[in-house]
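thought: fold this chain, then report.
action: predict
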Amino acid sequence: MTTFEGLPGAVAVSHLRVYDWSTEDGLRGGTPHLHLTCSEGYVVVGGSGSVQTLTASGFQETPLAPGALVWFTPGTIHRLVNEDGLRIVVLMQNSGLPEAGDAVLTFPPRVLADAGLYRAAATLPGGSEEAQAFAARTRRDLAVQGFLALRGATEAGDPGPLAAFHRAAAELVRPRTEDWRARWQKGAAAASRVTGRHLDALARGEDTHLRDARVHAELPSALARFGMCGRLDVYPG
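observation:
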Protein backbone atom coordinates (compact mmCIF):
# COMPACT_ATOMS: atom_id res chain seq x y z
CA MET A 1 0.00 0.00 0.00
CA THR A 2 1.64 3.22 -1.17
CA THR A 3 -1.31 5.46 -0.23
CA PHE A 4 -4.16 5.24 2.26
CA GLU A 5 -7.45 5.70 0.44
CA GLY A 6 -9.67 6.50 3.44
CA LEU A 7 -10.35 9.87 5.01
CA PRO A 8 -7.29 11.46 6.69
CA GLY A 9 -6.14 9.36 9.61
CA ALA A 10 -9.10 6.99 9.11
CA VAL A 11 -11.45 9.52 10.67
CA ALA A 12 -15.09 9.21 9.60
CA VAL A 13 -17.73 11.94 9.45
CA SER A 14 -21.49 12.19 9.64
CA HIS A 15 -23.95 15.08 9.65
CA LEU A 16 -26.24 15.11 12.69
CA ARG A 17 -29.50 16.93 13.32
CA VAL A 18 -29.99 16.49 17.06
CA TYR A 19 -33.36 15.20 18.26
CA ASP A 20 -35.72 17.86 19.55
CA TRP A 21 -37.82 15.46 21.65
CA SER A 22 -38.13 16.50 25.28
CA THR A 23 -37.49 14.07 28.13
CA GLU A 24 -38.12 13.70 31.86
CA ASP A 25 -35.86 16.56 32.95
CA GLY A 26 -37.42 18.96 30.45
CA LEU A 27 -34.44 19.01 28.07
CA ARG A 28 -34.55 18.11 24.39
CA GLY A 29 -31.84 16.07 22.74
CA GLY A 30 -30.04 12.81 22.23
CA THR A 31 -29.24 9.54 23.92
CA PRO A 32 -26.47 9.55 26.57
CA HIS A 33 -23.73 6.99 25.89
CA LEU A 34 -19.97 6.44 25.88
CA HIS A 35 -17.39 4.99 23.52
CA LEU A 36 -14.82 2.52 24.82
CA THR A 37 -12.01 2.77 22.24
CA CYS A 38 -12.72 5.90 20.20
CA SER A 39 -12.43 9.62 20.60
CA GLU A 40 -15.18 11.71 19.01
CA GLY A 41 -15.44 15.36 18.01
CA TYR A 42 -18.15 17.86 17.14
CA VAL A 43 -17.98 20.75 14.70
CA VAL A 44 -21.14 22.80 15.21
CA VAL A 45 -22.56 24.05 11.90
CA GLY A 46 -25.97 25.34 12.96
CA GLY A 47 -28.32 26.08 15.84
CA SER A 48 -27.40 26.02 19.49
CA GLY A 49 -27.33 23.72 22.49
CA SER A 50 -24.79 22.01 24.68
CA VAL A 51 -23.12 18.69 25.37
CA GLN A 52 -23.38 17.31 28.88
CA THR A 53 -20.48 15.04 29.84
CA LEU A 54 -19.85 12.77 32.79
CA THR A 55 -16.49 11.28 33.71
CA ALA A 56 -14.77 10.17 36.90
CA SER A 57 -13.76 13.84 37.23
CA GLY A 58 -17.40 14.91 37.40
CA PHE A 59 -20.24 16.46 35.40
CA GLN A 60 -19.65 19.23 32.86
CA GLU A 61 -21.81 21.14 30.38
CA THR A 62 -20.16 22.69 27.30
CA PRO A 63 -22.09 25.23 25.18
CA LEU A 64 -22.43 24.50 21.46
CA ALA A 65 -22.88 27.23 18.86
CA PRO A 66 -21.80 27.53 15.20
CA GLY A 67 -18.04 27.32 14.87
CA ALA A 68 -17.50 25.47 18.15
CA LEU A 69 -15.14 22.49 18.10
CA VAL A 70 -15.47 20.05 21.00
CA TRP A 71 -13.94 16.59 21.38
CA PHE A 72 -13.62 13.98 24.09
CA THR A 73 -11.75 10.77 24.76
CA PRO A 74 -13.00 7.20 25.33
CA GLY A 75 -14.97 6.74 28.53
CA THR A 76 -16.68 10.14 28.38
CA ILE A 77 -20.44 9.77 28.79
CA HIS A 78 -21.98 12.43 26.57
CA ARG A 79 -25.49 13.73 26.04
CA LEU A 80 -26.38 16.31 23.39
CA VAL A 81 -28.95 18.95 24.36
CA ASN A 82 -30.79 20.74 21.54
CA GLU A 83 -31.87 24.28 22.34
CA ASP A 84 -32.55 25.54 18.82
CA GLY A 85 -32.03 23.45 15.68
CA LEU A 86 -28.63 22.05 16.68
CA ARG A 87 -26.69 20.62 13.74
CA ILE A 88 -23.25 19.06 14.01
CA VAL A 89 -20.61 17.45 11.82
CA VAL A 90 -19.41 14.51 13.89
CA LEU A 91 -15.78 13.36 13.61
CA MET A 92 -15.20 9.74 14.63
CA GLN A 93 -12.01 7.81 15.24
CA ASN A 94 -11.28 4.37 13.74
CA SER A 95 -13.26 4.58 10.50
CA GLY A 96 -16.53 5.45 12.18
CA LEU A 97 -16.43 2.71 14.80
CA PRO A 98 -18.53 4.82 17.22
CA GLU A 99 -21.48 4.36 14.85
CA ALA A 100 -20.54 0.74 14.12
CA GLY A 101 -20.68 -0.74 17.59
CA ASP A 102 -18.33 1.15 19.90
CA ALA A 103 -21.05 2.67 22.05
CA VAL A 104 -22.81 1.64 25.25
CA LEU A 105 -25.93 3.52 26.27
CA THR A 106 -26.49 4.55 29.88
CA PHE A 107 -29.38 2.21 30.54
CA PRO A 108 -30.25 1.37 34.17
CA PRO A 109 -28.16 -1.41 35.80
CA ARG A 110 -30.85 -4.10 35.40
CA VAL A 111 -30.63 -3.70 31.59
CA LEU A 112 -26.83 -3.49 31.48
CA ALA A 113 -26.51 -6.70 33.48
CA ASP A 114 -28.19 -8.83 30.77
CA ALA A 115 -26.68 -8.81 27.28
CA GLY A 116 -29.90 -9.99 25.68
CA LEU A 117 -31.98 -7.38 27.48
CA TYR A 118 -29.47 -4.67 26.57
CA ARG A 119 -29.47 -5.69 22.91
CA ALA A 120 -33.28 -5.65 22.78
CA ALA A 121 -33.42 -2.19 24.34
CA ALA A 122 -30.64 -0.75 22.16
CA THR A 123 -31.67 -2.11 18.74
CA LEU A 124 -34.05 -0.12 16.58
CA PRO A 125 -36.61 -2.07 14.53
CA GLY A 126 -37.20 -1.87 10.82
CA GLY A 127 -40.55 -0.82 9.47
CA SER A 128 -42.17 2.57 9.22
CA GLU A 129 -40.56 5.86 10.14
CA GLU A 130 -43.12 6.27 12.89
CA ALA A 131 -42.17 2.93 14.44
CA GLN A 132 -38.47 3.75 14.28
CA ALA A 133 -39.03 7.20 15.79
CA PHE A 134 -41.03 5.71 18.65
CA ALA A 135 -38.33 3.12 19.34
CA ALA A 136 -35.53 5.72 19.14
CA ARG A 137 -37.35 7.98 21.58
CA THR A 138 -38.09 5.10 23.97
CA ARG A 139 -34.43 4.06 23.85
CA ARG A 140 -33.31 7.64 24.48
CA ASP A 141 -35.64 8.05 27.46
CA LEU A 142 -34.38 4.84 29.07
CA ALA A 143 -30.77 5.98 28.67
CA VAL A 144 -31.57 9.43 30.10
CA GLN A 145 -33.08 7.71 33.13
CA GLY A 146 -29.82 5.87 33.73
CA PHE A 147 -27.72 8.95 32.99
CA LEU A 148 -29.56 11.10 35.53
CA ALA A 149 -28.99 8.45 38.20
CA LEU A 150 -25.27 8.28 37.37
CA ARG A 151 -24.98 12.06 37.41
CA GLY A 152 -26.82 12.32 40.72
CA ALA A 153 -24.58 9.75 42.39
CA THR A 154 -21.39 11.33 41.02
CA GLU A 155 -22.40 14.82 42.12
CA ALA A 156 -23.27 13.43 45.56
CA GLY A 157 -19.72 12.13 45.90
CA ASP A 158 -20.50 8.45 45.27
CA PRO A 159 -18.25 7.07 42.49
CA GLY A 160 -19.64 3.53 42.79
CA PRO A 161 -22.48 3.67 40.21
CA LEU A 162 -20.25 5.21 37.51
CA ALA A 163 -17.53 2.62 38.15
CA ALA A 164 -20.15 -0.14 37.95
CA PHE A 165 -21.39 1.29 34.64
CA HIS A 166 -17.84 1.26 33.25
CA ARG A 167 -17.44 -2.41 34.24
CA ALA A 168 -20.78 -3.35 32.69
CA ALA A 169 -20.00 -1.48 29.48
CA ALA A 170 -16.62 -3.19 29.10
CA GLU A 171 -18.22 -6.60 29.63
CA LEU A 172 -20.95 -5.92 27.06
CA VAL A 173 -18.46 -5.10 24.28
CA ARG A 174 -15.80 -7.71 25.14
CA PRO A 175 -17.06 -10.29 22.58
CA ARG A 176 -16.71 -7.72 19.78
CA THR A 177 -13.18 -6.52 20.36
CA GLU A 178 -11.51 -8.76 17.76
CA ASP A 179 -13.83 -7.42 15.05
CA TRP A 180 -12.95 -3.91 16.18
CA ARG A 181 -9.26 -4.77 16.09
CA ALA A 182 -9.60 -5.80 12.44
CA ARG A 183 -11.30 -2.48 11.63
CA TRP A 184 -8.49 -0.59 13.38
CA GLN A 185 -5.80 -2.58 11.55
CA LYS A 186 -7.36 -1.77 8.15
CA GLY A 187 -8.00 1.85 9.09
CA ALA A 188 -6.04 3.98 11.55
CA ALA A 189 -3.15 1.52 11.94
CA ALA A 190 -2.77 1.17 8.17
CA ALA A 191 -2.89 4.95 7.69
CA SER A 192 -0.13 5.38 10.27
CA ARG A 193 2.04 2.71 8.66
CA VAL A 194 1.69 4.36 5.24
CA THR A 195 2.76 7.72 6.68
CA GLY A 196 5.81 6.02 8.18
CA ARG A 197 6.75 4.56 4.80
CA HIS A 198 6.33 7.99 3.16
CA LEU A 199 8.65 9.55 5.73
CA ASP A 200 11.20 6.77 5.19
CA ALA A 201 11.05 7.30 1.41
CA LEU A 202 11.45 11.06 1.69
CA ALA A 203 14.40 10.61 4.05
CA ARG A 204 16.03 8.50 1.32
CA GLY A 205 15.33 11.20 -1.26
CA GLU A 206 12.62 9.16 -3.01
CA ASP A 207 9.39 10.66 -4.36
CA THR A 208 7.74 7.76 -6.19
CA HIS A 209 4.70 7.63 -3.90
CA LEU A 210 3.68 11.10 -5.12
CA ARG A 211 2.76 9.53 -8.48
CA ASP A 212 0.02 7.52 -6.80
CA ALA A 213 -1.96 10.61 -5.75
CA ARG A 214 -5.74 10.23 -5.96
CA VAL A 215 -8.83 12.41 -5.42
CA HIS A 216 -11.93 11.00 -3.73
CA ALA A 217 -15.45 12.36 -3.39
CA GLU A 218 -18.51 10.84 -1.72
CA LEU A 219 -22.18 11.59 -1.25
CA PRO A 220 -24.00 10.31 1.85
CA SER A 221 -24.76 6.60 1.78
CA ALA A 222 -27.80 7.14 4.05
CA LEU A 223 -29.92 10.20 4.76
CA ALA A 224 -31.78 11.07 7.98
CA ARG A 225 -31.11 7.70 9.57
CA PHE A 226 -32.26 7.39 13.18
CA GLY A 227 -29.12 7.44 15.35
CA MET A 228 -28.36 7.66 19.03
CA CYS A 229 -28.39 11.45 19.16
CA GLY A 230 -30.47 12.49 16.15
CA ARG A 231 -31.06 12.04 12.43
CA LEU A 232 -27.84 11.14 10.64
CA ASP A 233 -26.54 11.63 7.13
CA VAL A 234 -23.90 8.93 6.93
CA TYR A 235 -20.95 8.71 4.54
CA PRO A 236 -19.28 5.48 3.41
CA GLY A 237 -16.40 4.45 5.64
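thought: worth noting. The chain is about 35% helix and 25% strand.
final: C-alpha coordinates above.
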